[in-house]
Amino acid sequence: MKRCSLRPSYLDSRKENLILQKQNVTVSAKRAKRRDSARSAREKHVKQKQEKAVEKVIKDDEKRIGSHSVSVLQGKRKICYVSGQKTDLQKHHIFHGEGRREVSDRHGFWVYLQAKYHSAALGGLHAYPNSGLDLQLKRLCQREYEKVYGAEAFFEIFHEDFIPFKEEEAVKMQKEMWSVIWFINVCRGFKDKNNIFTTDEYWANDDR
Q1: Taking residues 52-70, what's their average pLDDT?
Q2: d(Cα 41, Cα 47) in Å, to the nearest integer?
Q3: Residue 141 Cα distances to 15, 69, 180, angstroms
Q4: Range among 21-25, 67-71, 89-93, 149-153 rated most confident
Q5: Kind plus residue range of the DSSP H or E element containing 112
């Protein structure tokens, strides 16, 4: 009579369990490795973004001709830019609006103005944005900055050009104007003083 033994099947079952446990451990290790890799990639990406941000700040700081304490147009003088008075002064950030106020402060694009020239409630420049005194200050600041770093550097900051045409273009336009005026008057013969072609007539032409 043969003896029946359960030991072999028990060993096989235990062996299978050990294999499954080993596989689970391997899978868990792989998952943990993927998680660590993803976390490392995220941290590297964040670090790169931070480094780029720092580089941009350094780059911006290198291209400054003023600061929060030194105005591009006034230096350190604490007087009204319009009247020269020392009373009722308010700090006007020349390029204002979302995000621009901080840029103006960092680059020195600001001036002191008396409240009557500054406040919108008193009819100051904030009541008439992008016109009059507000526009003139923007153009003056742009010209001062472009003297040092050029037009492209200014455009990189604000993505806008406040000057209708540059000095070279203005000289070219002026030469063209006087050439046209001279030619037309030569054709007319300068005989009739009442019929002389003038600058007013030149700019009144709708084609220009």
Answers
A1: 62
A2: 10
A3: 82, 16, 34
A4: 89-93
A5: strand 110-114
